[in-house]
Amino acid sequence: MSLHIKAKKGEIAENVLLPGDPLRARWIAETFLQDSECYNDIRGMLGYTGIFEGKRISVQGTGMGIPSAMIYTHELIKEYGVKKLIRVGSAGAFKPDLELMDIVIAMSASTNSSLNRERFRGADFAPTASFDLLIKATDFARNNNIAFHAGNILSSDVFYDEDPDYYKKWAKYGVLCAEMETAGIYTLAARFGVEALSILTISDSLVSKEEISAEMRERKMHEMVKIALNSF
């Protein structure tokens, strides 16, 4: 076991879904995986392993924010030999053409976090998705008539920004939406030579001020999860 995951060696698959919400991890396991078993409940951060269409898949909650997501990503890679990680999460839209429940596939992740400026002595590292996972995800979505947007997103350290219009500059440069984990996950995947992708569902809009319910955030994101599971 590692510091934050009590699984034994071999209990976690090489392919892992990473929802932020541990209750979404449980919902994914119960809804999509056969013969799923819980391998982790430390700090309530649930993790499961099961079977999806003959493939062994794990799903591990990461909590909110880059630091929390990086703890679980680091331990999954270094302690359990995980090779492919796909974040499945929610995001806030920056663009008027992004509607609630739309899917965004993150090609890259801008960030206002200082994590990589400290690593690279003030320089800007560009956290980027795995090309192979990106192609598999977009091909599956197209072949199954699932609409999606693909592009740059923002991984923000701030959820409640004091400036309600802060998103407009990001939007002007083509950034699609904001969430809080992807830049950290992509950075560690690059560091350790594994594959990572982030697939997001729009749960609220900074443009229209609309939002979905907490229950929908937890349980109503089937298409996003289907894309992710079929991208391994």
From TrEMBL:
TM region(s), chain numbering: none
Domain Nucleoside phosphorylase: 16-213
Alphabetical GO biological process terms: purine nucleoside catabolic process
Catalytic activity: uridine + phosphate = alpha-D-ribose 1-phosphate + uracil
Pfam families to which the protein is assigned, alphabetical: PNP_UDP_1 (PF01048)
A GO term, aspect molecular function: uridine phosphorylase activity
EC number(s) on file: 2.4.2.3
Alphabetical UniProt keywords: Glycosyltransferase, Transferase
GO CC field: cytosol
Top EC class of this enzyme: transferase
HAMAP family: Pur_nucleosid_phosp (MF_01627)
Protein's name in the database: Uridine phosphorylase
Source species taxonomy: Bacteria, Pseudomonadati, Bacteroidota, Flavobacteriia, Flavobacteriales
Gene from which the chain derives: deoD
